[in-house]
Amino acid sequence: MSYTKDNEIELIKNIEGYVAVFVVQPISFNDLISKTNTETIINQLNNLALVEGYSTENGSRVFKPNQPITGAEFAAMQARLLGMIQPGQGRLYEILSTHQPASDDTWSQPYIKQLQSLIPVDYADAPTVTKTQAIGSIVQLQQIIEERTSEKFTGDLYFPKNNIVSRAEASRLILSLIEGFGW
Predict the structure, then answer these.
(1) How does DSSP assign 2-25, residue by residue?
(2) How distant is the alpha carbon of residue 164 from its chain centre?
(3) Which of 8, 34, 35, 78 is the most core-located residue (most Cβ within 10 A)?
(4) Which of 92, 121, 119 is nearest to 108 (CA)?
(5) Distance set, CA 69 to CA 74, 83, 170 (Å)
(6) Can you tell me whether residue 166 is helix, strand or coil?
């Protein structure tokens, strides 16, 4: 039996034959404008554990949607889409193995190393990602998903407006890929 408390489902008694479902309230980002398309997109990806924010001095989290996305961040988002997440989290695809934290690597290195086995991630060390790099990489990602899952992409990819892709535009691009596969 379970009940809802503050948008979370808590198990209060384990009854044989039933499966308990736990819903964890994801971290919210304090710098997103409420009830906007950008907030909706980023929250959807946050719920899928595909994006990360930044901690502030007061302990809150921000997303910095207008900041250019780095190559490492974009590679990490793509690797997470392919299933490389923390053990125990739900996965959209199981193409890459789960991420086991390594103490000698920076947070992005395990993602980049595994993603490079599928896509030549030549932008991983770049401080920004260009529109050409982002679209080219996402098209390769689309082909990998179609080959490995036999799913067909039937949607339209978002095309970033600026030459340097922002964190919000990268999120829109990733979400357009997910929606194109019917998720």
Answers:
(1) EEEETTEEEE----TT------PP
(2) 19
(3) 78
(4) 121
(5) 7, 21, 7
(6) strand
